[in-house]
Amino acid sequence: MDANAKKQALRSFTYGLFAVSCADRGEVNIFTANWITQASFEPSMVALSVENDSKSLPMIQRSRKFTVNVLRSGQRELAGKLGKSAIHHPDKLTGIEYSLGANGCPLLPDALAWVACEVRHSIEAGDSTLLVAEVVDAGIPGEGQPLTMNEAGFRHAG
Q: Of 52, 69, 48, whose CA–CA distance to 121 is shortest?
């Protein structure tokens, strides 16, 4: 296989950029994710891919919950800050405004929308774990367009 062709082909997939929040044992984290999709209408479910070596994956696996905050167009800087590894940048949430949702996970006040989820299934997927979760609550704090990988100029494909 031509590795360059594979990388370019995967980079042509369209993705949004999301701020996924989690909470466990009195600790919270928020990370930037782009591998998210709706997986079912009834019940409403989403699929989220989380890197195995992240701080958030074990938090989500223990608590069985997370919230997806849909970032707005223009929030590239926020996406970049939240995209830093919490293991290497433990203070990355300093200065980030949030409140806690009913499930204890952070909600970003400037998010376009959010969905609170409860994990129903997990599947090992190479260097990541795929989580399939049921949407148990949702909100739309504002209006606008969602931030996309294309707008942000971020590149993530192997």
A: 48
